[in-house]
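ARCHIVE CARD
CATEGORY: sequence design from structure
SOURCE FIELD: tokenized fold
FIELD CONTENT:
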């Protein structure tokens, strides 16, 4: 039997309710109460940890990310600081010189909105060829929805002047009618496969690196889309199941398993859905409807204000999307769908309503849910559709959203507080590696609605700022609700999992500007200490 008593602490139980101490026993919260009560109950054989007045909160549960890619990104070419395409070329050449023998270059890290004003342009195949023509070069935009590739990848994909159509994607053509090397959505997803793939051992290394980073920042559960999106599903399955069978993973894992078509959906439900191995399980079906706001591939109902030529990319035909949602609904399987633009959100939640009615007993969810108007938000509530927000997106998006979709629509978007006040079940995640999976950066953005430099003063559209307790609940209890675990996860109460974090600063009383700098001193998962500073 394992027992741990944490005492002399500030334990967050639920909104407005705090305790002094907590006892875990064999991975479950046994009791919360005063220091005296818990030490008496603990007995002589429990490990006793004096918290010195520090704050304890439930472990953070990222409701949507790509954790294997996080580990991969830790070792790959980083273009996040580049201010021009020329900077990217120089960095790519240096990366190859510093890594002799590499079989391909892959990155998902550059952002053209951060380029110098006089150097704003998208890279193309000529820029990628300037890095290398000998090995595949894939330069993915930070959003993960578009990329520039070299001529070698275009050749491997069979793309040329006469063959440049990919369902659910876009192949940009140059003035000569040839593919210019810039790809959107399904086209860039296919291009990833041209970069030499991973082994299961590679995938395990990436998973472990990212999970170790996660627990060091207070994450205890990841709801992650890795299945079929970053490597063949057999590689991901082998890596995950070997890790969790051996007890080598430090956090809980819920697979949001990507299915691009009905065949993949049928196979996933038949072969994997609902299976568990240790602290991991195969969870909802993950679908994509559109792209990203930054890449202007999100589906908007009206033209982009800053580029009328951009229409967004419809990743899946409405007829197939509806059929897949209905197929899953009929079998009791949850569907979570990537939707960023108001056009994608509108059509998708109407499909969910058609399949699931107003009850939505399988808790189908919209991931991202960025560009909305109030009628759409009311529809979401009326049909009990779940939302998985990424507040950390605001750090970048506050600088572009009004130019993309206009002031009026922007002021109805990223409506965290409105959604909460209406009673919508809205959880928090990071979509990492698109953003850092550090929960405190996410919470900072939810509470302040500012970028990391404190802009704008007072916060962007401050009426949507969250209070700290509600933001933490969205990141813990609501994320648990999204995976049907609200009865055992996301609270520090008797009968709940012993997943908790001790913080180096009191998040409830510190200056909100300091939230982003908070770090854990201890993280516990399933009653085991997985990180200690």
């Amino acid at each position: 039997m394992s027992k741990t008593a944490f005492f002399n602490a500030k334990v967050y139980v639920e909104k407005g309710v705090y305790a002094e101490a907590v006892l875990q026993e064999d991975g479950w919260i046994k009791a919360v109460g005063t220091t005296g009560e818990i030490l008496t109950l603990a007995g002589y054989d429990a490990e006793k940890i004096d918290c010195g007045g520090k704050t304890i909160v439930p472990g953070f549960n990222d409701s949507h990310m790509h954790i294997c890619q996080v580990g991969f990104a830790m070792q790959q070419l980083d273009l996040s600081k580049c201010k021009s395409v020329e900077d990217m070329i120089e960095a790519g050449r240096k990366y190859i010189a510093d890594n002799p023998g590499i079989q391909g270059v892959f990155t998902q890290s550059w952002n053209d909105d951060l380029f110098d004003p006089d150097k704003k342009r998208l890279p193309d195949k000529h820029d990628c060829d300037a890095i290398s023509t000998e090995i595949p070069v894939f330069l993915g935009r930070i959003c993960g929805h578009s990329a520039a590739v070299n001529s070698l990848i275009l050749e491997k994909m069979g793309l040329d002047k006469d063959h440049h159509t990919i369902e659910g994607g876009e192949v940009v053509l140059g003035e000569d009618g040839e593919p210019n090397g810039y790809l959107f959505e399904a086209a860039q997803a296919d291009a990833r496969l041209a970069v030499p793939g991973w082994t299961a051992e590679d995938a395990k290394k990436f998973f472990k690196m990212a999970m170790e980073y996660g627990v060091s920042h207070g994450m205890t559960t990841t709801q992650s889309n890795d299945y079929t999106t970053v490597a063949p599903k057999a590689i991901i399955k082998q890596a995950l199941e070997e890790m969790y069978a051996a007890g080598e993973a430090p956090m809980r894992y819920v697979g949001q398993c990507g299915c691009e078509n009905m065949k993949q959906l049928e196979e996933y439900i038949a072969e994997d859905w609902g299976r568990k191995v240790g602290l991991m399980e195969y969870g909802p079906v993950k679908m994509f409807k559109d792209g990203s706001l930054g890449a202007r591939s999100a589906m908007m109902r009206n033209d982009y204000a800053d580029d009328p030529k951009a229409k967004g990319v419809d990743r899946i035909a409405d007829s197939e999307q509806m059929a897949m949602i209905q197929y899953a609904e009929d079998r009791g399987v949850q569907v979570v769908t990537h939707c960023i633009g108001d056009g994608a959100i509108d059509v998708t939640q109407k499909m969910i309503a058609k399949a699931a009615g107003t009850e939505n007993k399988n808790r189908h969810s919209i991931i991202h849910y960025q560009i909305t108007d109030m009628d759409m938000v009311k529809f979401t509530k009326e049909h009990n559709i779940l939302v998985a927000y990424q507040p950390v997106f605001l750090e970048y998006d506050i600088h572009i959203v009004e130019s993309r979709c206009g002031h009026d629509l922007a002021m109805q978007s990223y409506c965290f507080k409105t959604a909460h006040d209406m009673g919508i079940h809205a959880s928090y995640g990071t979509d990492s590696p698109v953003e850092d999976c550090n929960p405190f950066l996410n919470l900072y953005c939810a509470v302040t609605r500012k970028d990391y430099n404190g802009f704008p003063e007072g916060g962007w559209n401050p009426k949507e700022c969250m209070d700290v307790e509600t933001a933490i609940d969205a990141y813990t209890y609501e994320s648990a609700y999204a995976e049907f675990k609200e009865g055992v996860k996301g609270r520090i109460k008797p009968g709940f999992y012993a997943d908790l974090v001790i913080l180096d600063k009191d998040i409830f009383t510190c200056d909100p500007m300091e939230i982003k700098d908070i770090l854990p001193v201890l993280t516990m998962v399933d009653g085991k200490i997985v990180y200690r500073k």
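CARD ANNOTATION: The mean pLDDT is 95. Residues 84-192 form a domain with the Diaminopimelate Epimerase; Chain A, domain 1 fold (CATH 3.10.310.70).
SHELF: design records, drawer C
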